[in-house]
Amino acid sequence: MTRVTSKPDKDNDPQQLPLALEMRPALGRDDFMVADCNSQAVAWIDQWPKWPAPALCLYGPKGCGKSHLAEVWRARSGALQVAAADLGVQNADEILGDATGLVIEDADGGLDETVCFHIYNMLKERGGHLLLTASQPPSRWQITLPDLKSRLGAALVCEISPPDDDLIVGLLIKLFADRQIPASPQIISYVLPRIERSFAALSELVAAIDRRALAEKRAVTLPLVRNVMEDMAL
Description:
There is one protein chain. This protein is an alpha/beta fold. It has helices at 39-47, 66-77, 92-96, 113-125, 146-153, 165-178, 185-191, 199-216, 222-231, and strands spanning 22-24, 32-34, 55-59, 80-83, 101-105, 129-134, 156-159. The chain folds into 2 domains: 38-159, P-loop containing nucleotide triphosphate hydrolases (Rossmann fold, 3-Layer(aba) Sandwich); 163-231, Helicase, Ruva Protein, domain 3 (Orthogonal Bundle). The protein has a 5-stranded parallel β-sheet with strand order 4-5-6-3-7, sandwiched between helices. Helix 6 runs parallel beside helix 8 and helix 7 (185-191) runs parallel beside helix 9 (222-231). It is elongated and about 60 Å long.
């Protein structure tokens, strides 16, 4: 279906919006944007493999980008990946094989503590690393195995905050551009104070705007965006 677009306006070019952001490749995924809310986590990823501990935990609310950043590290390090809920399906040897890196997602949602403990020890013996993602820091996890609790207590811990305004603007521009939608500064400025601070919410909104514009064969204008956000109760 052909997209309807309005005439480009040089003064409304979204590229003219000032952004305090660094653009960096996400190693096989979309570009990963660095801002104050995730810069410390990015710094730890950049410092690998010279981590001062065998494990790093990235934590933050849903949609803050921790899984995206974990994927950046996984792609760079060649690590394997497993959901915490699947740890008990296999033993540590079966999960790791001869790997020297592992990502465990949603580690605070319940995990097999014995298997996780053995994985930690195996990776440490191999000079490898473990990266965990969670919504809370390890100190708040319901860990009952003393040895594992001790290991996690010595892990590197880094919070990723919800996206700040600079990152929200950059992500909106990118999400619209990915769908070949010219988004004016007026649209960005309208969305910014009204959207939930999460990558998931931004993606959902831009997808809904795209669907509406295509279905109604309309250009993406401020009134259309306003209608979509009202229908989504944003």
